Amino acid sequence: MSTTRSHPVSGEAHLGHVVFISAAAAMGGFLFGYDSAVINGAVTGIQKHFGVGNGETAFVVAIALLGSAAGAVAAGRLADHLGRVRTMLLAATLFAISGIGSMFPPTVQVLALWRVVGGVAIGIASVIAPTYIAEVAPTAYRGRLASFQQMAIVLGITVSQLANWALNQAAGGESTGHLGGIQAWQWMLGVETVPAVVYGLMALAIPESPRYLIADHREAQARKVLLEVEGQGVDLDRRVAEIRAVLESTHKPRARDLMGGRFGLLPIVWVGIGASVFQQFVGINVIFYYSSFLWQSVGINESNSLLISLSTSIVNVIGTVVAMVLVDRIGRKPLALAGSAGMAASLATAAWAFSFRVGTGDTATLDDTYATVALVAAHVFVFCFAFSWGVVVWVLLGEMFPNRIRALALSVAASAQWIANWAITVSFPDLADWNLSATYVIYAVFALLSIPFVALCIKETKGRALEEMG
Fold first, then answer.
1. What is the pLDDT of residues 420-434, one digit of tens each?
2. In whole angstroms, what is the distance from residue 436 CA to residue 432 CA?
3. What's the whole-model pTM score?
4. Residue 9: C-alpha distances to residues 13, 17, 202, 231 (Å)
5. What is the distance, to the nearest Å, from the Cα of residue 329 to the centroid of all Cα atoms in its chain?
6. Which of 46, 92, 212, 225 could be cross-linked to 199 through a Cys-Cys bond (beta carbons 3.0 to 4.6 Å apart)?
């Protein structure tokens, strides 16, 4: 069982404690971002080392996402059965195992297997962090604290790109160059073991969710946690009664509890799935999984392509900070709508620039003027995504579902997100070979379609208690 203080926490100390436990939970998001994006720097090395082409490479990159979908589906039940903290510890263990295994794969097929293990961990982390943070965060700060998950993800992406670039440079600008007896791309994949251990240690230092504790008939512990996370002014009897009333009026969620709408699932579940799918179908992870491949496909060398990957990751962090500042001030919907418009415009601009690409494969080039336009558009796209859909979707998924189905519904929505991510990831290399410009037109269309989706389907959750959702 996790260790935690039992005395009252108030004022800045109370808020600082809530920030710490939210950050600890969001460490899973850091590993989510690192493990998802680190493959970007290793792609070229994997191709050269194993002698595989774009099809096999896309398989290795994308297979982790199917593991993520499975992990997301399982996470809801794991969280309700084991508790939120033990589920985090399970994810940390899987991340560490995957990192070590991916570092020494004898074949590309074995590498794919270890990436599936890491993918399962990503799927679990994608569900457990927003669930836990939403359940411990005071209502007034919930949006900002929930956005820790996305900040952790983008920091994980940035650190992975920085590590990739540094290792590539140390190996002489080649991901197949040797460092300490193994190739640079192997180090890239193995380094995640370090933050995995840190995640496990941080999970041991945070309290269990009060909602889970009450559901598990541990009310005394739940009261201590509520006092810690909501401060001395909280009416413990009222809060416990509210949570218990919601829990007692329902039963443990089953798949059939998500059913009942006109199209099978409850409307709110479809909205969660739709938000998840739109978040991926704008093509954001093409930038984070394939940017080195993308920029090399228009004539930029491997070392510079990794540097560009790092710069877009930094822009991603900046946009996420903007979202964290604004999400509880102006609300979820306005951010999502503004981001959708910006993404549509920047993706269309990138598509226009890529239409001037000359040649194919290793001989493809792009005139400097159009390459500059494409680079700027890509950075604007990442910024627009980061300050809007990158944060808003995870905040909404932690908030929008009724208590009785929250963990399970979030699992389904997150699983849909991973399947959509897989579809984009596995298709990009072949689509890029077919027509890079048309591929970005497709992404721009989805960004445009996300505008009416937000306007018509998303309900604002700013300032509402979780017990009010339904």
1. 988 998 888 888 888
2. 4
3. 0.74
4. 6, 8, 20, 6
5. 23
6. 92
